[in-house]
Amino acid sequence: MNRVLSTHLFVNHRLTVAMLDRIQRARIPAVEVFCARQHLDYRNSAQVNELGHWFRDSELKLHSLHSPMFTDEIWGRSGPQSVITITEPVRSKRFPMVDEIKRAIEVAEIVPFRYLIQHIGVGGEEFEEGKLDAAFSALEELSIFARQRGVEILLENIPNDLSSAERLMYFVGVTHLDLKFVFDTGHANLRGSAAGEFEIMKERVRSTHVHDNDGTSDSHLFPLVAEGGTIEWKQMMSAFRSREDQYPLLLELKDPAGAGNLLDKANEVFDRLESLRNDE
To answer: Is the overall model pTM greater than 0.85, yes or no?
Structure first.
C-alpha cells in the first residue's frame, strides 16, 4: 500500500516548506494536509502560494486536504461561533460554513490534490433526519464546487450518531449522492470493532486514517509503538489488504510528549504495519 502521512502530527505548528522538506527527506511520498488556521491558513494567499511553488518542484505529493473544523486558530476555543458544521439546519447560518469549506477547496487551484476529507456533524452529535437534509444540501453544493477543481469529497466515519459506518451507508443511500469514504481506524475502534466497521464501508473506501486508541478516547496513538492501543492490527491489515489498490495507508497521528524524532517513529509504524501477516 502507498504511504501517506497526515500533517495532523504537526497541526499546532505553522505548515512551512521546511516542514514539508523534512517529510520528503524521511522518504514519505505523500501527505494529507490538515486545514487548521494555525497550521494551514487556506485564506492566506502568501502561505498557499509558497506551498504551491514548493510542491511544483518537489517529489512529495499532496494526496488530500482535511476540511476545516473551526474558523479560529485555537481549535474552536474562541466560542461556538467558530465551529464549522454542514449539519446546521438554518440555511443562513450554514451558508458561511459552506463558504469556509469552499475557501479550503480553492487551495487546489494552486496546489492540486485529489480528495477533500469532510465530516458530517461534530463529535458526539445526535442523529436527526433534519441534520441529514442540511448535510445533503451542503454536500450537493460542495461536490459541484470541488469537481470543478479536480477534487473529490470523501466522508469520514467520526464518533457521532450521524457518521457511523451504518449511518454513512444510509446517508448515501437515501440522498443518492455518489460519495466515497475515508475509513478512520481509531474512530471505528471507539464503536467497538475497527474491522467490523470497515467491512460495512469497504466498497466505498478511497482513503484511510490510521491510528490507535484505548477504545474510549480519540487519542490518535502511534499503532504498535505507543502504549494503550487496543486495535487488532493483524486483523485490520488483513482487511486493508483485501482492497489495497483502493486506498493508501495514511497515518493520522498526534504528537506525543517526548517521542523523539516523529518522522522516524512514523516510518517505524509503516514498517511494522506492513510486516504484519495473519498467518504468522
So the answer is: yes
